[in-house]
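User: I'm putting together notes for a lab meeting next week and I want to include a structural view of one of the chains we've been expressing. I don't have a solved structure, so I'd like a prediction I can at least talk through. The sequence is below, exactly as it appears in our construct file.
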Amino acid sequence: MREEPIIIPNELLFREVEAAISRGETVTIPFNGRSMEPLLKKGQNTITLSPLEREVRVGDVVLFRYHGTWILHRIDRLEGQQVTLQGDNCVSKENVLRGDIVALLTAVNYKNGSSIPTSSELWVAMSARAVRRNKCRNWLLRLAGKKSRRILAPIYFFLLYLLMWAPMGFMGLPLNSFVFHLRVDHLLHMLLCVPCSWMLMDYVSQQKRWLWLPALGLCLLTECGQLLLPYRGFDITDMVADSVGVFLGWGIMMGVRKYLRSRA
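Assistant: Thanks for the context. Below is the predicted structure for the 264-residue chain, given as structure tokens.
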């Protein structure tokens, strides 16, 4: 008869872990969660936790108490007794006291039987890459966030109409030259329209899958407006380039939103 696995509540498990650490013992437990990906993955790694036999440093991965639970994250900043931590796959950070740190991660173990000590050069290099990846991702998320959009949207639409309606001949730009077999002016039109859906996100319907429609209408309106300007010309290929830019930007926006929901 097959035995059912015993499920231990997290609170009971980590109380036992903390008790073992306080006795000076080393503990190995399965890793659970996604906050430390890609270095640590649920179901693929076990982690070895050891008592704090030295002062913790920035970059150490530690187990700590936080609002009645236990979390394994990396130390981001140390200021006296204040410790700021962040997961390698997280946006938010936790602020605790040094006394809330329970144990130090000293090894990561894999299903194939291999193990990487956290004191090794390999782990240090892997950690550095993970931290850089997370900082880059979080910077992009802040840039794509509502607060940034509120600031950037007026600037974007001002520049869009300025470039679409202003006389361009005096600038001497080589708009008739080609890059990757595309005319520079068509490429410029396409690139200008890529952010349009994103910039309209806070001002139009909550149905994001239809954002391409007002974005497309707005960009095409700028082209039609050139019919009234004696110093600008109307070209159907510019409208095609605008449409390609709108759909490209909308597709990127929807893909990013889907990715972020899957990681939540």
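A couple of points you could mention at the meeting. The first strand starts at residue 27 and ends at 30. Residues 236-263 form the longest helix (28 residues).

User: Perfect, that's what I needed.
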